[in-house]
Specification:
CATH topology of the largest domain in chain B: D-Maltodextrin-Binding Protein, domain 2
Shape of chain B: globular
Distance between the termini of chain A: 52 Å
Structural class of chain A: mainly alpha
Radius of gyration of chain B: 24 Å
Helix content of chain B: 40-55%
Order of helices and strands of chain A: HHHEEHHHHHHEEHHHHHHH
Structural class of chain B: alpha/beta
CATH superfamily of the largest domain in chain B: Periplasmic binding protein-like II
Largest sheet of chain A: 2 strands, antiparallel
Distance between the termini of chain B: 73 Å
Strand order of the largest sheet of chain B: 2-1-3-12-6
CATH architecture of one domain in chain A: Orthogonal Bundle
Number of helices of chain A: 16
Largest interface: A-B, 42 and 47 residues
CATH class of the largest domain in chain B: Alpha Beta
Oligomer: heterodimer
CATH architecture of the largest domain in chain B: 3-Layer(aba) Sandwich
CATH superfamily of one domain in chain A: MetI-like
CATH class of one domain in chain A: Mainly Alpha
Number of strands of chain A: 4
Helix content of chain A: 55-70%
C-alpha cells in the first residue's frame, strides 16, 4: 500500500512540465497559429506604420540595404493639418458615414416589403440581394456607365428630353442638346454623392438580408398579442417589431459603418479621386495615392494618413467592443 | 554501393559546378510591356543578341507595365535582375539618388555609336553629369486630326497660333468640336500644357519649371495659362472630358464629332481600332505660338538600366551596346511602330513615323513629358491643377497659389 502510493507520487513527479500544465497550455497551442499570423499581419504592421509616419521615406533601400528614410518627427502630421486634400478626404469620409446610414432604414423597408408569402418570393429576394453578390469593382463600373452623359441611362433619358439627332459633318449620327447633359462624375461638388449612391446599392442589399433573417425570428405570438391590443402600422413596427430586430439593427449599423470607412474600390474605379484636386478622395484612397500609386512614393505621409484613419476606426471599434461587453454582462 | 553513392555525389558536384560556371554567361532581363507588338520587338532583339553573342544566355521575364512600376522598388533592393526597363528624366531620379542604378557613363563615352548617334536624347539619360541608361524607343507627340473633316472645311494644317484659332472657329461654325481629350487620368491635360508652354516659352522654361527654378506665378507661366484660356474659349474641348480616359475620348473623334487630338503616336493604333483608315487621319506639329522660338517637342523614351545589384554587369553592358546599334533599333521600332532613338537608324515607313522622325530630329530640344520631368509629387499636383483649370479657368489664381505652395514643399 505504502509502496504503491509512493509509486504514484513518483509518477506524479515524473510527469513533465507539459503534462502537469496541460490544461493551461493546450488552449494557447491551439491559439498560437492565429495569434502569430494576427501579430505578423495586423498588430506589428500597425506599429510599423505608426513608426514610418514619423519619417520621410520614398519606399527605397540603398544597395547595401540601408534605409533611405529621414526622421522628421511629427512633421507629416503638421503637413496633414494644412493639407487641403486631407480635409477634403476627411469631409468626404464623413459624408460617406452619414449617407451610408441610409442603407439601414432602406434595407429594413425592403426586407419588410419582401417578408411575405407570394409565389416565387425567393426569386424576388435573390434579385434584391444580387447587387451584394457582384464585386464592388463591377458595381463601380456599372454606375460609371449609368452616369455617363454620352451613352449612360442618365444620358439617354436626357437625350430623349432635351436633344435632337443631327447628322454631323462626316455623315454620322450625332446629337445636339439644348441643355448639356449632366456629367455627375465630372462635377467637383456632386461626384462624391454619385459614388455614395453607387455604394449604397449593394449596402442596402446587405442590410436587407440581415433584416430578413431577423424577421424570421420575430415571435408570431407577440405580433398576435399586439394585434389583439389594437396595434397596427407604424405603431406595430416601432413598438413590437423593431425592438425584436435590435440585434439585426446593431449588426447592420456595424457593417455599414465599416463599409463606409472602407470605401476605396468605388472611388478608385469611378473617379480615381478626381475630378480636380482630389474632390472625391476618401482617407483610404488618399493613403494609397500618397504612398503606393504611380505618383506617390511618400510612404511616411501615406502612413500618417493611415494612422489618422486608424484612430478614427479605433474610436469606433472601442465603442463597439464596449457595447458588446455591456450587452454580455447584462445577460 | 558506397562507391556508387560516391560516384553520384561527384557527378552532382560537377554538375553543380557546371551550372555555376554557366551562370556567368546568364543575363536576366526584366521587360515591362506585355502587349503583343512590344513583346515581339523585345523578343526579336533578344534572339538577335543571343545569335551575336552565343556565350550569353538571356533569361527574360516580361511583366505588366503597371505592376512593374510598383515591383521595381522591391526588386532593385532585393533580387535585382541584370537589366530592367524604366523611364528616363526625373522618373529615374529616386533610383539614381538612392544608388540603385549603375553609372554607365564609360559605355556612353567609349562606344562610338552611343556617343555619336544619341545626341538628341542624351540629356534625358543624364543625371548629375553621368549617364544611367540606354533608350530603345521613343515616340512623338503632336496634333492628330481628322483629315477628311479638314478637307470638307477646306482647312490646311495650321502652322501658327492664329491659324489654329481660325481653324477652330471654322470647325465650330460647322458644328464640330475642335479638340477631344479624356482627362480622367490627368496626364493627357499635361500634354496640352507642355505644348502650350514649350511653344509660348520654349524648352529652357519647361525645364526650369519642372526643375523647380521658376514658380507657377511667374509671368511666363501665367502667359501659358492665358494662351490655354484662349484655346479653351476658341478651340473648345469635348465636354465631360474629366470622366473619360484617353481611349474613351477616341469615340467622339472616330464619330466625327471632334476633329483634333493632342496625343502621342501610340494613339494611332487606337484610332485605327476605332474604325478610322490611314487616309482619314493625319498628324501636324503643334503650331508655333511665340514667333521665332526654337522648336522643342515632347518625346518620351523607354530605356534599359543596369541595377546596382546586378550580378552580370559585363554581359549587361554588352547587351546595351548591342541593342543601341542602328540596325537593331530600326528593326525593333518597326515592330512596335515607334521611333528608334539612334539618329542613324532607318525609320518605319508609316507616314506618322516618317513625319514624327522629321519633327523630332529637327527639334531644338526633347522634353520627356511633364509627369516624367517633374518629381512625382509635383507632377500629381500640377496635373490635378491642369484638369481643374480646363474645367474652370476662372480658378487660375487659386490653382497657381496651390502649385507654388506644393513646389516650395517639393524642391526644398
Amino acid at each position: 500500500m505504502a509502496l504503491s502510493s509512493s509509486l504514484e507520487n513518483r509518477e506524479f513527479e515524473n510527469r513533465t512540465f507539459f503534462q502537469r500544465n496541460r490544461m493551461a497550455i493546450v488552449p494557447w497551442v491551439f491559439l498560437l497559429p492565429a495569434v502569430l499570423f494576427f501579430l505578423v499581419y495586423v498588430i506589428i504592421p500597425i506599429f510599423q506604420s505608426l513608426w514610418i509616419s514619423l519619417y520621410e521615406w520614398d519606399g527605397l533601400y540603398r544597395p547595401d540595404g540601408t534605409w533611405t528614410a529621414q526622421w522628421v518627427g511629427f512633421e507629416n502630421y503638421a503637413k496633414l493639418w494644412t493639407d487641403e486634400k486631407f480635409w477634403t478626404s476627411l469631409r468626404n469620409n464623413i459624408a460617406w458615414l452619414l449617407l451610408f446610414m441610409l442603407a439601414v432604414p432602406m434595407g429594413l423597408f425592403i426586407a419588410l416589403f419582401l417578408n411575405q408569402t407570394v409565389t416565387g418570393m425567393r426569386f424576388y429576394k435573390s434579385l434584391f440581394f444580387f447587387p451584394f453578390v457582384i464585386s464592388q469593382v463591377v458595381v463601380g463600373l456599372i454606375f460609371g456607365w449609368f452616369y455617363n452623359p454620352e451613352f449612360g441611362v442618365v444620358g439617354q433619358i436626357w437625350k430623349f428630353l432635351f436633344c435632337e439627332e443631327v447628322i454631323n459633318i462626316v455623315g454620322n449620327v450625332s446629337t445636339r442638346c439644348s441643355v448639356e447633359p449632366p456629367a455627375l462624375l465630372a462635377s467637383e461638388e456632386y461626384a462624391t454623392y454619385g459614388i455614395i449612391a453607387a455604394g449604397l446599392w449593394p449596402q442596402i442589399a446587405y442590410c436587407m438580408i440581415l433584416y430578413l433573417t431577423g424577421l424570421n425570428n420575430v415571435s408570431p405570438d407577440q405580433i398576435e398579442a399586439a394585434r389583439i391590443d389594437g396595434a397596427k402600422g407604424w405603431r406595430m413596427l416601432w413598438h413590437v417589431v423593431l425592438p425584436q430586430l435590435k440585434p439585426a439593427t446593431f449588426i447592420a449599423v456595424v457593417v455599414t459603418v465599416i463599409g463606409a470607412l472602407r470605401s476605396f474600390d468605388m472611388v478608385a474605379i469611378m473617379t480615381a479621386g478626381g475630378p480636380g484636386v482630389g474632390s472625391t478622395n476618401v482617407l483610404a484612397y488618399y493613403m494609397y495615392e500618397a504612398a503606393l500609386s504611380e505618383f506617390g512614393f511618400r510612404y511616411g505621409y501615406g502612413s500618417a494618413i493611415a494612422s489618422v484613419l486608424f484612430m478614427i476606426m479605433l474610436m469606433y471599434i472601442s465603442y463597439f467592443l464596449f457595447r458588446m461587453y455591456q450587452d454580455e454582462r447584462g445577460r | 554501393m558506397l562507391q556508387k553513392t560516391r560516384k553520384f555525389l561527384t557527378a552532382t558536384a560537377i554538375s553543380l559546378f557546371a551550372t555555376t560556371s554557366a551562370f556567368a554567361g546568364e543575363l536576366n532581363i526584366i521587360f515591362d510591356d506585355t502587349n503583343p507588338g512590344p513583346k515581339a520587338g523585345f523578343e526579336a532583339a533578344v534572339a538577335a543578341f543571343e545569335k551575336a553573342h552565343p556565350e550569353v544566355t538571356v533569361n527574360a521575364s516580361i511583366n505588366d507595365r503597371e505592376a512593374h512600376k510598383t515591383a521595381i522598388g522591391n526588386f532593385l533592393t532585393a533580387e535585382a535582375p541584370d537589366l530592367t526597363t524604366w523611364y528616363p528624366g526625373n522618373r529615374m531620379g529616386p533610383f539614381v539618388d538612392a544608388g540603385l542604378f549603375t553609372d554607365i557613363s564609360d559605355l556612353w563615352a567609349s562606344d562610338p555609336n552611343l556617343s555619336e548617334n544619341f545626341n538628341a536624347i542624351k540629356p534625358t539619360m543624364t543625371r548629375d553629369g553621368k549617364q544611367w541608361g540606354v533608350p530603345y524607343s521613343y515616340y512623338q507627340w503632336g496634333v492628330y486630326y481628322r483629315k477628311d473633316i479638314f478637307d470638307k472645311l477646306n482647312l490646311s494644317e495650321p502652322k501658327t497660333w492664329d491659324e489654329l484659332l481660325g481653324a477652330c472657329d471654322t470647325m465650330k461654325e460647322a458644328g464640330v468640336t475642335p479638340f477631344t481629350i479624356g482627362t480622367k487620368f490627368l496626364w493627357t491635360a499635361a500634354g496640352v500644357f507642355d505644348y502650350l508652354n514649350l511653344r509660348t516659352n520654349g524648352y529652357d522654361v519647361h525645364n526650369d519649371l519642372t526643375g523647380g527654378k521658376i514658380a507657377y506665378s511667374d509671368p511666363r507661366i501665367q502667359k501659358t495659362f492665358a494662351n490655354w484660356k484662349t484655346m479653351l474659349e476658341r478651340c473648345s474641348f469635348v465636354s465631360n472630358h474629366s470622366t473619360m480616359s484617353w481611349q474613351d475620348a477616341l469615340s467622339p473623334f472616330a464619330n466625327g464629332d471632334a476633329a483634333m487630338y493632342v496625343m502621342g503616336n501610340f494613339a494611332v493604333s487606337g484610332m485605327k481600332d476605332a474604325g478610322l483608315t490611314e487616309e482619314q487621319i493625319d498628324y501636324f506639329q503643334f503650331p508655333e505660338i511665340t514667333p521665332g522660338l526654337a522648336r522643342a517637342e515632347e518625346a518620351p523614351a523607354d530605356a534599359f538600366f543596369i541595377p546596382a545589384k546586378a550580378k552580370n554587369k559585363e554581359d549587361a553592358l554588352k547587351f546595351l551596346a548591342f541593342i543601341s546599334r542602328p540596325e537593331v533599333l530600326a528593326e525593333w521600332n518597326k515592330t512596335i511602330g515607334q521611333l528608334p532613338p539612334n539618329a542613324k537608324s532607318e525609320v518605319g515607313d508609316s507616314k506618322f513615323l516618317q513625319e514624327g522622325f522629321a519633327t523630332l530630329s529637327t527639334a531644338a530640344g526633347l522634353a520627356q513629358f511633364y509627369d516624367r520631368d517633374a518629381p512625382a509629387e509635383m507632377a500629381k499636383a500640377g496635373m490635378e491643377g491642369f484638369q481643374q483649370f480646363m474645367n474652370d479657368p476662372s480658378k487660375l489664381d487659386e490653382i497657381t497659389a496651390r502649385l507654388d505652395a506644393v513646389q516650395k514643399e517639393v524642391y526644398k
